[in-house]
Amino acid sequence: MDMHVHDRRRFLALTAAAAATPLLAACGAGFGGDDNKSDGSAADDVTGSFDWKREKGTTVKALLNKHPYTDALIADLKSFTEKTGIKVEYDVFPEDNYFDKLTVDLSSGRASYDVFMLGAYMVWQYGPPGWLEDLGPWMRNSSATGSEWDQADFFPNLLQADQWSLKAGAPLGQGGQYALPWGWETNVVAYNTDVFKKLGLKPAETFDELRELAGTIKRKAPGAGFDGMYGIAVRGSRSWATIHPGFMTMYARNGLRDFTVQDGKLTPAMNTPQAVAFTEDWAGMVKQGGPPSWTSYTWYQCSSDLGAKKAGMLFDADTAAYFQAVEGASPASGKIAFHPGPKGPDGSLATNMWIWSLGMNAKSKKKSASWLFLQWATGKEHLLKSAITHNHIDPVRKSIADDGAYKDKMKHLPGFIETFETVVDQTKIQFTPQAQFFDATTSWAAALQEIYGGQGAKSVLDGLAGDLADKVG
Amino acid sequence: MGWRLALRPYVLIVPALLLTCGILYPFGLGLYYTLFDFSASKPQPDMVRFENYETVFTQEAFWNSAWVTVLYAVGAAAVETVLGVAVALLLHRSTIVGRVLEKILILPLMIAPVIAAIIWKLMLQPSVGVINYLLKPFGLGGVQWTDTPTGALLSSIAVDVWVYTPFVAILALAGLRSLPTSPFEAAAVDGAGWWYTFRRLTLPMLWPYVLVAVIFRFMDSLKVFDIIYALTEGGPGDSTVVLQIRAYLEAIRFQRYSFGISYTIVLWAVVYLAAMVLVKHLGKIQRKAAEVK
User: Fold this and answer.
1) Which of A211, A392, B25, B62 has the most Cβ atoms closer than 10 angstroms to its Cβ?
2) Can you tell me whether residue A192 is helix, strand or coil?
3) In 3-state terms, what secondary structure has residue A161?
4) Cα angle vertex A374, ends A373, A380, to 5°?
5) Nearest C-alpha of chain A: how many angstroms from B208?
6) Residue A15 — pLDDT band, cuts 50, 70, 90?
7) The dihedral of CA A132, A162, A304, A440: what is its sign?
């Protein structure tokens, strides 16, 4: 009997030890998996003359966000397979959870996806942990990159936006090329021509005019036959995405910065007197002329309100208005015009941008095939076809922006091409690159909501700056 | 004793052992990670011992989230309990209407809470939502339901109540139907009124069932994420950032893994303590109910 008890104890002890072993092993194995990283790029392994068929028979896995640009890509994938013999398998997720899916996937250290869509801001988050392949060596290797790819054809500010040294506060355009521009958006004002005509209005040239215009539309439009129309649609949800379109564009046009950088040290600058005044004015504009339930507004609501004739103006991505403006897309299609938006006090048209970029997983086992895919997807042939036959507008390449067929397609939209050409050279990332971008901008959006709710702008922004100083400093 | 017979207890314990390991392994690993400064920007972290917890407890944001979480959990559990019991009492009379309503009542439970929140988000939309449309004749058509901190919290609780009141009602109804009839017959013979019978007989005997529902709902509400995130994303400002949302933002969105897990461990401790207290209380109530019977 005693022996039996002893056996049971020994059994339990051994079982506990066996259970603990993987736990300790996992802990000992470190965090985030394999860290064996060679300094040399896999691009160096590609030699000889350039050949699209080099990786024939390979399958590349892509993670994509649901978007009209993605639809254009998927529609043309057959051309890529014909050209290279490479198959592309893909998963498409809606934007609400796309980045969470991508973040979790990359942080797992696995190579579930070889290539994926990302924004330039994500480079600041995914670059420092080493999750993104530096595409620079691939671009420089003539064995890996065909001459027709023509790097000089990209708008330089777009290529620079995906290039970073991985040092907080360091300017973009230096260091590794962690993604390639594929489709982008510039933030401008789109407006309903019917209501402007009826009320005798014209687009605002200054921020004060814009605020006044928003209020005027909200007051007068319902009485002029535009039932329930308010002045201006801008994003307001508690998300980083609220800050980067209209708000950051106007903020930058006023000469304001998110952070100041001195000797590599970042100091929050959202609470300077000028920034406080601007933020107060922005919240005031939303109160006077913005949408009801603004605190839940994402680009979907903003865009659809313009299309449904609920909003007189939209200060957001030009694509958000474009998708409503195309024929038959919405009740307002044919009645939407584009304007660069208000200038800053010194005439500045500095504009913030969003770039849908394509990146490569640093842990991918199929880098050569993945690079061929990225090269094709950002190449002239596919992008021109997507711009003309689909809705892949706002070209990242100069040759497409200048293409006659593209201009023909866009010219029916009043002011679109003129607006694009006015702001294209002044559109860049207006934020300071740093890894805490998402925390900073989510907190900034929450602060904006509090100010909109009636709290004092100075105290709220001082609190925000104090909180962020600890995190980014 | 043959070796097969001797081995049998060990074989029988294997599923339970695997299950225990399956629960404890990720939990233990998570707990272990909280002792480091593990984040995306620091994939090879240093041991910081309890620094993450210190930071959590010294953050104003944590105390705000803890307060919002408690408000939400108490508010939702209380309203659901009162409404659930009331609905169960109404349905207890087994009429045709009651039986039809029973079937309808269960519908919200079949909808994923996140979907329910999205449906309610549309219904609460100030300009096109049906709620304001219905309130318009009473001069209340312009309410901006989720634009103020109080409105956002109350709206979130309302959605929770809509989804989970049927759960409480079903438990309470099952309890009502299992009560012995003789004490009620005796009370009727003695001429006891409805309120007296309810207070002195129904409620004391029903309490164990109600408390089970309260335990489930209170613990679930402490862990709420989907309803609030889909409805308000935690806004306006930080007014509806409950502990789960804070943990999600820290661990997933901002990629401060150790810090995010520390939040969840604190939340786990709170839920565990609350559950212990309530379960202990349940035992007492069950004994009292048995005395009444």
Assistant:
1) A392
2) strand
3) helix
4) 100
5) 37
6) very low
7) positive
